[in-house]
Amino acid sequence: MTSHLDTLLIVLRTTTVAGVSLSTLLQGAAIATLGSFAFSKLSRKKRTVDGAKKPRNTVLLYQFYTSDKAKIQLSSPCLKLEAYLRVNKVPYKDCRMHSPAGSPKKTAPYVEYNDMGMADSTLIIDWLEQNGVVSPMDAHLTPVEKAQVEAFRYLFEEGLYWQMLHSRWQHEPNWPFVRDVFFFKLPGILKYLVAFLVRRGQIKALRIQKTGRHTFEETLIFSDKIIQAASDLLGDKKYMLSNTRMCSLDMIAFANLSNVLYLDLPDTRMQQQVAAKKNLVEYCDRMMAEIFPNGYGR
């Protein structure tokens, strides 16, 4: 004899909405609800700097935790800003977080400096230079060189960055590895719940930006062109535009190229595009040694 519960289960499994079973939809809703609750709890945790009063005239840099499986900070905007602070000898404190929910723009990195709070690595750097915290890093460049900086900034941050995100968050063969690397600090089921929500948000952002509408193979066509252009610009120079002096483009190039080169994803095709350029590999290694001589995070 079929019980009421059995009947309900049959209805849930056989009833579909837009081709998806009702039971699957309910499971997804439950996961999303639990994940949202857990994520909000993490986001509401009060952030303190070693429990002490926040120091004056020191940049408090809020960025993501980094797994031992990664050689570097896996957010290229965070790495760009930290590299900038180190190269320009700006006093800063490295503050790690699970979620950027406390950020003014809900993104990372974000900083606090005395009474100022700001997000977006480019806007932060502009603010630091305009307010006399740092001498303008590109002041020595010619107008043509400054134009090159802006053009390649766009190639890296609006091109390669999104192609790299596609390889991590949308390309299915890489996802289990990415999940374990990005959410390693979260215990048990919480890791899977939060990862589910974050991935869903990243894929949505990729679709809106349009890179997510391409197949991974198509994104490789675009990334290969950008990586080739970067290799051609660098040539045999020490830095992107000079043999003697870094500029802001070096912070951008290093952050994005090293994020592709130094993370060993299961599908290595994008990584191999950088690895095939000897000058870019040497450049990333050289920049890493100069900026983080004891290794990242030390």
Question: How is this structure best described in words?
Answer:
The chain is an alpha+beta fold and 298 residues long. The chain has a domain at 143-291: Glutathione S-transferase Yfyf (Class Pi), Chain A, domain 2 (Up-down Bundle). The chain has helices at 4-14, 22-44, 76-87, 121-130, 143-170, 175-182, 188-209, 216-234, 248-261, 269-275, 278-291; strands at residues 16-17, 20-21, 59-64, 92-97, 110-113, 116-119. The protein has a 4-stranded mixed sheet, with helices on one face. A two-stranded antiparallel ribbon has the order 1-2. The longest helix has 28 residues, at 143-170. The model is unreliable at 32-48 (pLDDT under 50).
Q: Count of DSSP E strands?
A: 6
Summarize model confidence as the mean pLDDT: 87
Tell me which CATH architecture of the domain at 143-291 applies here. Answer: Up-down Bundle
Strand order of the largest sheet: 4-3-5-6
Give the SSE string: HEEHEHEEEHHHHHHHH
Q: For the report, how would you describe the main beta sheet?
A: 4 strands, mixed
Taking all Cα atoms into account, the compactness measure Rg is: 22 Å
| CATH fold label of the domain at 143-291 | Glutathione S-transferase Yfyf (Class Pi), Chain A, domain 2
Tell me, what is the CATH class of the domain at 143-291? Mainly Alpha
Beta-strand residue fraction:
5-15%
What is the structural class?
Answer: alpha+beta
Which bin fits the share of residues in helices? 55-70%
Number of helices: 11
Distance between the termini: 67 Å
Shape field: globular
Poorly predicted ranges: 32-48
